[in-house]
Amino acid sequence: MPTLTLTNFQITPINAPLGATVTGLDAGKYLAPETILQIKQALRDYHILIFKNQNLNNEQFLNFAFNFGSLFVPPDDVPVLASQPGFTPVIIPVSNVDGGYTGTGELAFHSDHKWTPYPSSGSLLYALEVPSEGGDTSWLNLNLAYKTLDDSTKRKIADLQLITYNPFLNKPGVPRSKYRFDQSIPLISPVFPHPLIRTHPESGKKILYLDYATEVEVVGLDPQEGSELIEQLREHLHQPQFYYQHKWSVGDIVYWDNQSTLHYRQAFDPNQRRVMKRVSLAGSRPF
Q1: Verdict on whether the full-model pTM lies above 0.85
Q2: Residue 250: pLDDT band by 50, 70, 90 thresholds?
């Protein structure tokens, strides 16, 4: 696809199943209304946007993010990354140093906050320090994953509801399960079923709304049948034809649509620094 030249910056699709780079834009400055609308439309079209060569303080980063929505705030009884009862940081340090979060290990393909009643619509991650190798992030196109399912599977899963269990409520030392077989275990947090096939609230595109490793349960299905179905869908999801792998540079801001993508992080050397900041934007009830 050709480069789209706008008033004073460019949006260039990358050679991948999703994504575009944005160059020539200073995210720390005022954005005209038509610029904000062009960026929103590009996010709907490409699912992730990579803003290059940014140099922002916290206030500028927030002002840029809030052009696209208000802050994601979870309910007090539904913990997410970095939250405490009654408090969620506005900017979350995604870092392996200085009290940051997510460490240095591999993070399986997932979308943020799927276990909450109103999952975030998107997030912006800003790279301040990056390791010399490793720590790459990949994003997966869930609309493309849905479109490439066979028609029989699409019909089978069209009206199913999925519960995603909160990974921040796992007990220490208890192995994580990818499917909830023992439904007699008392719940220690509310659960919020969402459509397994989600409709994007702006584009209308169909989304296979499933991540790769978090504990889930298909509402109304026998656990064995549900587990086999989810395993089949996850095997379908985990194909390179659906994702783009991003090697970070200092000054990158990646803005992704959390409603239509999954993201994955490579492990990296614990002796190297990886320092980033994340802001997540509010979303709506999936339908």
Answers
A1: yes
A2: very high
Sign of the torsion formed by the C-alpha atoms of 95, 100, 106 and 108: negative
Is 71 within 8 Å of 279 (Cβ atoms)? Answer: yes
Task: Tell which residue, 92, 130, 142, 89, has the closest CA to residue 269.
Answer: 130
Query: What local confidence, expressed as pLDDT, does residue 173 receive?
Result: 66
The pLDDT tens digits for 117-147 are 999 999 999 999 999 999 999 999 999 999 9
Count of positions (residues) in the chain: 287
Residue 105's alpha-carbon distances to 162, 256, 269, 277, in angstroms, are 27, 21, 9, 18
Indicate the SS3 state at residue 263: strand
Residue 74, SS3 per DSSP: coil
Residue 221 token pair: 């299905």
